[in-house]
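Show me any protein, fold above all:
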Amino acid sequence: MLTALAALPIVAILVLMVAVRWSAAAAGATAAVGAMVLALTAFDFGGTGFPFGPLEGIVGVLATAAWVALTVMLIIGPALGIHHLQQRTGATKALEAGLARITPDPRVAALLIVWFFCLLIEGAAGFGTPVALAAPFLVAAGFKPVTAVVGAMVGHASAVPFAAVGTPTLAQLAIVDYAPRELSWAVAPYMAVAGLVLAFVVARLVGTLLPAAGPPWTWMAVAYVAFFAPNLLIARFVGPELPSLIGAIGGAIVFVLVVRWVIRRRSHVSRAAAVGALQAEEDAEETVVEAAAEEHAPPMSFLAATAPYLVLVVLVLVTRLVGPVQDTARSVVWRWELFGHFSESIEPLYHPGLLLALSFVAGALWQRAAPADMGAAFRRATLQVVPVFVALVAMVTVAFTMSESGMTTQLAVAAAGAGALWPVLSPFVGALGTFMTGSATASNILFTEFQDQTALAADLDPVPLLGAQGSGAAIGNIICPHNVVAAAATVGLGGREGQVLRQALPVAAVCLVLIGAMAWVIV
């Protein structure tokens, strides 16, 4: 009975957003009120066994939710500012022209954004940064808003276990006593298998740019191999810090080289001999696209157009990989505490929000943007993120109410009762943690010890189940409600988050089933 009650807030969010099509703010607020009522009654929140009273518990949860929502907005705001500034300065058109020079096929150019750009930013920064940056860029490139958000959310997921230079997996290593390479290799194969589904979905979404041409299956296969080959090797022989980062950078370089080689080869063949009518038609279309890109190319250089993103990558790499700089950046911590139990902190010099803000300013200076353009971009971004705050607070309130009252643990313990079927359900627990907290790292902190002890109690090898936990937590990023809220806000989809969730849920479900089946076979 308690398990069914604990599941009610999650069910309410899914039903209200997906079936009833309520906005995230309305669904989240309803679920938050319901979760608090359940916490105070069925779970005795703030009663015996809790280090705080009912009123303190409610105030603590709301304060924590507001803080977490604010830290998310600190990422969304500057990311939106970069997007609006890029549009006002003409940088977006310069980027489109530059990508057209790499390949005349907009689908292939889109793969560089949806796949490699998202994977790179996730591997370097994490914390929702890639979706906030990529989704508006994809809309500007011709994607419909819902497709852009789903594409960005699906496209970055493969990098999540080793995001922010390995943070989610390092969080597991801080809790259990296993070798770093052992645990990183436990996660990587699961993600490679789930990555097949993610790559398939990305190709389908990218295919909407040119419906007549269809999804770019061959190019997606090249992109998949280009990322996962180094990703798996680094995870197996080096550790959890660099698989996503090196996979994205190395894979993008290989992908671009292959694209350029194929284009040159096609050009050579077309000049040497006649080809079929279909090839001739494609060549003519490519020529038109190239000519249009050259004719309308803005005066801004491609390098200047990429300035905010280049500065962001450099700042992230320096603050994450250069030891003394990282130590200095992390030495400043702002922390608060309530009632001796609720506490949160932020490292302002290390937080992606500051790095994005610096990238906004540096990009504007590099592009010689007018102060009026900078001000307009800032104002527009601020106006967009303010309404999102309510939805974020509501969703995070549900998460922390469930966590603090024991609802989330109740669901996980109930799942552990599956016995021999536990490996199948293990990734779903990881996804549950991310669904409720919005963070794969938080999910791993919440459930890693639980997964380890459950495996030992059932006489199962815990390492594959810890890998299933980490990969399940990564997939949970695709469907986490307040991630969906934050992503939708960047493309003006406020109030229509359910459309994103409806497309993302089946993708996550298929991935989790595959990971669970793989875990069952391994264990």
